[in-house]
Amino acid sequence: MKTESDIEQRIAEDTGESMSGLQGFWAGLARWLLAAIPLAGLLYAFSVPSYFGYALWGEQAALAVLGLGLGATFLLKPLLARFAGRTRPAWYDILCMALSLLLCLWTAVRYEWLVSIGFLGSGTDYYINIAVAALTLLLVLEALRRLTGWAMVILVLVSLLYAVFAGSMPGAFNGQTPDLDFLVGYLQLDSAGILGTPLSVVVSTVIAYVLLGNALFRLGGGQLFLDLPLAAMGRFRGGPAKASVLASSLFGSISGSAVANVATTGIVTIPLMKRCGYRADQAAAVEAVSSTGGQLLPPIMGAAAFIMAEFLGISYVDVALAALIPAILFYMALLVQVHLHAARSGIRPMTAEERPDAKRTLRRYWPFLLPIALLMVILFALRWTPEKAAFASLVVTFVAAAMVGEHKVTPGVIVGIFEAAGKSLLEIIAITAAAGIIVGVLSITGLSFSLGLSIADLAGPLPIVLLLVAAITAILFGMGMPTTAVYVLMATLIAPSLAAAGFDPLASHLFVLYFGVLSMITPPVCLASFAAASMAGAPFMRSGWQSIRFGATAFLVPFVFVACPPLLLHGNMSGAEWVTAGVAFITAMLGFLMIAAAIEGYLFRAIRWQIRVLSGLAGLMLIVPEDGALKIFQQVPTDTIGLVLAAILVVFCWSRSRGQASRTVVITD
Asked: Can you tell me the distance from the alpha carbon of 481 to that of 488, in angstroms, rounded to the nearest whole number?
């Protein structure tokens, strides 16, 4: 079990705080290795080597980025935490760094030949290739341990142990046992191993978006995304919490990291919420839930969204469009709950002195709207490839920074942005490489197929059972593990089972991604909630449970779009499907309103437990579609029942609140 100090250490790593006190040559080497990571990705994404007569395999580019990422990790993250302040790395860290660069470069240069001989070859080549493959796998695992802790390392080791004994396992876990030497070579070199889809997507696409996000934040665009929500929402009841929801959604859609999002926006919003009347644990919870949802909000989502597009064989634009309506539902439901809580608790608005001036903010920072607007147009209208869209927006970001004039765009500043992007990518590189190991094991043993069939059998006549199994599994895997790793695992094991049970494939993948993301606010290990708690000075677990309360409706959103696939705006939708999507959106929002009222105990006025129960029941009836894919109620007009019950409750509570107000006025007079 993780202690609070372990969790604080993990949060510090996730927010990008350096653990290194390197100086001189070693600090310079670490910086250049970091800057070289996004540079290598851009050179490959835009096929720059081909202009000089060199045709690179995708696996060769992945090996180059992997070597740079591992090398920088071993310099910046020492073997033992107590050596973090050293000005010079220990000899074994230098050795690991050198081996990472040498082995990945060696393999990249010889990759085409290695493929032609079946990875291992014979004679002396056989032993050399086996040693290189085994050492590379060990270095990936050690870098993963230093960056993310033991949780995912243990999972990878369990998968490797399973591969060795797969032929002896019972039932659905029985699989093929590969020869150990072939397994090692396969995992290192095959496109289904560490060089597979997760890492290749990072190299070709994700790097460009991480670079764009770092450029926006470091050149001043982040101030626009923070001040505008505070100016827009601060004047309303519970204004700081509503501003936190909007600001975190904007930041999170660009950063792709819930913990980093908390660290960026929480430093402003959490103190404001506490000053306006929120308890410390409530302020932490609102910030954590808001920041977590950013990974689900287009136009820029986390790395998992790009990997999803590759898994499904569709464009990233289709994934982003599919995520749009669910993300709107997520944040609108959260705003409703935050409002009802503020109304019941008497949370005051922000004063004029506490609020930024919207006109002044726009006059000063409006150029930073241009990169986001351009990205939207290029992605959704012109349909450029994601990496080209990101690069075009990156160029416009530099132009916007020059127009604002706060930060000069010098070569040193650009190198610093590349360095910061490289640092942000270290964990992603290690995670996707390790995820490739797990996917490779599942593929070579056949477990992904046999286990998927067994999981599908659990559903029986009620597909809702399969969805619940998938949701619980994603949350359990997500405790202490990064979202990208959880998604890759769930997309390999669970999502095919959902599709086989009749659910829309895109909805199935988005479903498991949602619950992988929501594990960031689910106790007992909820990193986003713990990050916010440490900033708010609140108890960790209490903040985690408050996050569940404020994010309760978010756990229902995936069931809504799985039950009604037209909400994902996927494919050439007919007129009837647009109507279905519109009705589902409206009834879902009404349902979330009633459920939020039940949780907060407020609907125009404080309500008793009997009304809360009826309100929750009305909300669930509105959310559950009639004859939908969940097949819970057949031929039952759930929407009609929910609407009638909700209308009765709304009229009743409104009339009682008006009557109470009238009595209060009479008494006052």
From this structure: 12
